[in-house]
Specification:
This protein is of the alpha+beta class. Helix content is 14%, strand content 28%. It is built from two helices and four strands; from the N terminus they run E-E-E-H-H-E. The chain has a four-stranded mixed sheet. Strand 2 and strand 3 form a beta hairpin. The mean pLDDT is 90.
């Protein structure tokens, strides 16, 4: 049986890169388990969250951005 681990989620004050899909301000930076990094605006990050989460080693989100796959605080 294969166990899927959730990626580490880190919050930073802001991201400086632009969205790889539309050049809007980046809200989420996804470090892939296979290497490489993708940056998305809030719209594209959450639109593709279900596909990104399984292949992410770490997800860095800007403060105030609600990542669709992030668990609410306990």
């Amino acid at each position: 049986m294969t166990t899927m681990l959730s990626p580490e989620i880190v919050t930073v004050p802001s991201l400086v890169d632009r969205c790889d899909s539309c050049i809007a301000a980046g809200k989420a930076e996804i470090v892939l388990t296979t290497g490489g990094t993708l940056v998305f605006c809030g719209h594209h990050a959450n639109k593709n969250a279900g596909k990104l989460n399984p292949v992410a080693a770490r997800i860095t989100v800007g403060d105030g951005f609600e990542w669709a796959m992030q668990s609410p605080p306990a």
